[in-house]
Amino acid sequence: MTNALTELNPSATALLLMDFQYAMVGALGDAAAGPVVANAVAAREWARANKIHVAHIRLGFEPAEAAQIPDTNKNFAPVRNAGMLRTGSPEAEIVDLVKPADDEQVFRKTRIGAFSTTPLGTWLEERGIDTLILAGIMTSGVMLSTVREASDRDLRVIVLRDATADMDPVAHQALVEQVFPATADVVSTAELTTQRPAQ
């Protein structure tokens, strides 16, 4: 794995920081969320230092978008009914420690995965990015959907196993140890940040 990390081409690599919003961080609780956020920040600083693209994914609904969520959507119908995660609301904001820099792209989505309701795919293609490093909350939500879609798009995927967490620790463990390795390289943040990519 170390050799694979050192062979990263910075200009063709992007770190995606996904759903590091107050609602998701709060749902995990401080004990679980604290290390995950800290690892995401470490990965971001490493990416910035190595001139790797950094992009942020966040979930948020305009009122009209929320109104169009059907009752059949088990994930988001309750969010619609509760009036949560509306664009501009405090709980939909990215937490202060992970706030995007002015030159970092932010994609707003209205479904679980990072691709389906955003122009992320086009953004990657325009920049010749073929490798994604993924960190996000939750493991069984945005991480699972994005890992699968990225693989289907023939992208190389690196999952930071300690920069993600889930409200169900058993699901998290199964995903990072058994499911993700089939389509992604799964590494720790320390393994990533102690390497220097190829220049």
Q: What does this protein look like?
A:
With 199 residues, the chain is of the alpha/beta class. It has one domain (2-58, 98-193): Isochorismatase-like (Rossmann fold), CATH 3.40.50. It is built from nine helices and six strands, in the order H-E-H-H-E-H-H-E-H-E-H-E-H-E-H. It has helices at 2-6, 22-28, 30-49, 63-67, 77-82, 120-126, 139-152, 169-179, 189-193, and strands at 13-18, 53-59, 105-109, 131-137, 156-165, 185-187. It has a six-stranded parallel β-sheet with strand order 3-2-1-4-5-6. Helix 7 (139-152) links the parallel strand 4 (131-137) and strand 5. It starts with a helix and ends in a 6-residue tail after the last helix. 35% of the residues are buried.
- Main β-sheet, spatial strand arrangement: 3-2-1-4-5-6
Low-confidence stretches: none
Query: Radius of gyration from the CA trace?
Result: 16 Å
Q: Report the average pLDDT across residues.
A: 94
CATH class, anyone? Alpha Beta
Précis, in short:
With 199 residues, the protein is an alpha/beta fold. The chain has helices spanning 2-6, 22-28, 30-49, 63-67, 77-82, 120-126, 139-152, 169-179, 189-193; strands at 13-18, 53-59, 105-109, 131-137, 156-165, 185-187.
Mind sketching the topology for me?
Layout: H1 2-6, E1 13-18, H2 22-28, H3 30-49, E2 53-59, H4 63-67, H5 77-82, E3 105-109, H6 120-126, E4 131-137, H7 139-152, E5 156-165, H8 169-179, E6 185-187, H9 189-193
Parallel strand pairs: 1-2, 1-4, 2-3, 4-5, 5-6
